[in-house]
Amino acid sequence: MKHITRHKPSGTRAERSIFGTIFNAMVSVLLVEVALLVASIYVMRVGPQLDQNAEDILAMQVENRSRYIQTILNDAQELSTLESEINALTQELLDSGRIDLATLDSSSITAYPLLEAATPKLIAALRSRPVTGIFLVLNTHDLNERSAGNRLPSIYLRDLDPDASPSENNSDLLFERAPAQLVQEQSIATDKSWSPALTYQAKARGYLYAPFQAAYDDGAQLSPADYGHWTITPYALKGDDRQAIYYSQPLILPDGTVYGVIGVELLTSYLAENLPCAELQGDGSGFYLLACSNAPLNLDTLSLDLAPVLCSGSSAFASGTTAAAFRRGIGCFRLVQDHVTYTASVMPLNLYNRNAPFSGDHWCLVGMVPTANLSAFSDRVQQLLFLTVLLTLIAGFLASFLVSERMSKLVHQLSAAVAKAQENAVAMPQLPTTGIMEVDQFASAITHLSEDVLASSTRFLRIMEMATVELGGYELRSDSVFATDNFFQMLGLATPEPLTPRSFRNALSRIAHSSLYRTTDAGNSVFLVQKEDGVRYVILRVTRICGETASEVGLLEDVTIPTLEQQRIERERDYDILTGLYNRQAFNRVCADLFAHPAQLHCSALLMMDLDNLKQINDTYGHDWGDQYIHQTGQCFAANAPKNTVCSRLSGDEFLLLFYGYDTQDAIRAELDKLSAALRASCSTLPNGKTLNISISGGVAWYPEDGKDLKTLKKYADFAMYQVKQSRKGQVGDFDIGVYHREEYAAQTQREFLQLLREEQVYYYFQPIFSAQTGRVVAYEALMRVNTPTLTSPSQVMALAHELDRLYDIERITMFHSSEAFEKLQSRGLIRKDALLFVNSIANVDLNDADIQEYHRRYPDLLKQLVVEITEQEDLDRACLERKRNIPGFSGAFALDDYGTGYSNELNLLELSPRYIKIDLSIIRGIEKDLDKQQIVSNIVAYAHARSMQILAEGIEEEVQLRKVIDLGVDLLQGYYLSRPAAVPSPIASEALDVIRTASAAHSDAD
Questions:
Q1: pTM of the prediction?
Q2: Which of 222, 292, 420, 544 has its CA at 20 to 30 Å from residue 365's CA atom?
Q3: Is the model's pLDDT at 370 over the cut of 80?
């Protein structure tokens, strides 16, 4: 047995009485320290200061959160643009006679034209706001006179995840209320509570009665936004269990007619996600309260009645209850609910304009924490401080006494004898007597203990020598270490020289880093030791003994045989014999453990793969070659899969790999690329001499984007693999939720597009272009219109034309059909004979010779009135433009469209040399108050007039815009304010004509 002891020098201090001197000095120091400690705690006011800090932190967190919620609610209730657009649609349909206010709310059939026209506006508004739903309800009668149960025409759309990216075809939206015909046309799914119309509930707490009736009774004297109203209690649609709060405002025509409401919803579940209660108090006891008070929140009153709207994190404040809050300080309240006292920070939310009908509803965000929890830290700190003072006093007196007592004893002689005895570890210590009974008894006990320890050690060594397995051991103390002769030999190490506690710990640390095999459930370490006769497994069990002489005892045991047997059993259970990879059961077990601890997964991917051509190999060369093909694939996975990968063979030719613990998808994709390259590089020689490379088709499902459980990821990865095998074998493809849900929709869209091209299912509206000097019609712009179940806008048609390389068909249809419609209007006397025709053309596409000849044959006179608008958002094709310019009989007039958007730039202006420059509506909108936009228009006007070009301002929607562009010197005008597009264009609006004449007269007087 190896043994080393650190010797302590013996003292030579003279025997004298020092008890009184030491004790009095230590007690004096102790009393001074305690007095200073108590005084500092009192002066610093630790408890009150900690309580105030906790309240300040609570107020700061609530203030930050209230700003965020204020932004969400304000963005949600900004419906002025949508209200204006729907009013414009309503007025247009009223003017055309397609709807009638008298019967508008009688049924969904009479209101259908408006519902159909408003749906795209509602979808666009829903996409642009942080809301979970948007709705439109039509009603033109006094709700006080309407019976409960009446069905009102309505549209109600819902987006359950507004923070996610919107899908291209609105598959993430749900109809809650809408006519069946509209549902079919929009191809948007219906929710479980869908109904074709809204069932009116008389004076219900929902979103219809309050804003509508307020505007109706008031004669619509205020703006629609002033009648806006937030519901102060959550409300669920009939047949739906999801509660929400609603904001709605009335729809008011310019003549004061109130004909319905528009509004948005915020699901309480969505709001609760944005009110994380954990940020208020780490123990989860805090919560947020979205509340409404009938008293102003800024009054210095002693109490405040709150009506909770939404409570995040506690059931004590349910919707519909009222809580009384008593002011404690600036922005801080105390209130009691269910016998629990809460500390609350109240932050107002400004939702209504002053003097609006519902401005008496004062909304606020309240952050609440039980007062006991908020001040718990302060209480614990104070208790700990006073306990520390008390324990310090007690321990100090006790320590002073013990130290003085022990140091006064005549122990020097005994200490020297013990130190001398330690020099010979195998001899019994011979301690002298001191004449003091207690000390002599202690010396005798040491002698007897040494004898017992030596006898026990001898017996233990004999037992170890007789054991059937090799054993070793050690005892480690702060100043000494004992180890059996074979201890370091069993670990494959040389015995450190000299053997000290420090060198012993260093040796154990090295073996733990280099040879640790595993750690058992009991915390014991199993080491793998490489020896000349093979691999050995040893287990180290450590016991720590506490006390005055703390020590650590370790037992080392050879466990090679049971470990190898366990490995053999586990391998047969968990591994596939043919490939050496995990089997299905082992894969599921390992993955279940990973998914039970999501922090390990981070960003992960599940790859499901299927061997290509396995059946052909089995049929051609036999199953042995097929097994070799599978084996080679498994070996390639084992050799090339990265560290954080679980590989398995499911069955037959199917493999499953889980990549986990990555920071980004790009990191996983890089590993997938390496693995794919390794598979392609791996090959074997077939009996016919040909080489066979591994070919695998696979699908990838991503965690957590595609799914958060293994079952879902398997299903999606299998679907993605099937898509790959159906289209491009030998590759790996990602799972696409859009393809999963909308494959048929995409195919239907392409079929309708091709049918549109075959049958030329397009028609054209014309929008007049007027002179800025006289208001006379100068030209008409032809605008394409389509109306199929899935194709409803020209932008969709152009996107598919690009995708399917059918731009030429669109160019030909546009030129011929727009010209045909224009000529018919001329022949019927509905438009001016000398008016020009502006036709949108694709910059990089021109008609072939046969079509040019056919166009010339049909419309020879129209070529002189034709103006080609260049709308392609790409670089111009000079050769194509020249062919267009040189068409026989063509005037050569070009118009550069969308100038100012970034697509129609100065280079295009120089290359095209157009006769007309159309300033985009993005420049016109707001030009009356934007000096930069005015400068842009002034510059281009000056440039154009110097080169005999004319400037056309398009998108004029307001009188102030019209006045400003005329002042800036534009030549031509176009926009809704003057005349809207129509199959038969209408004359200029009288208001616009008056503005033009007034401006023209003013310019004449100035000249």
A1: 0.41
A2: 222
A3: yes
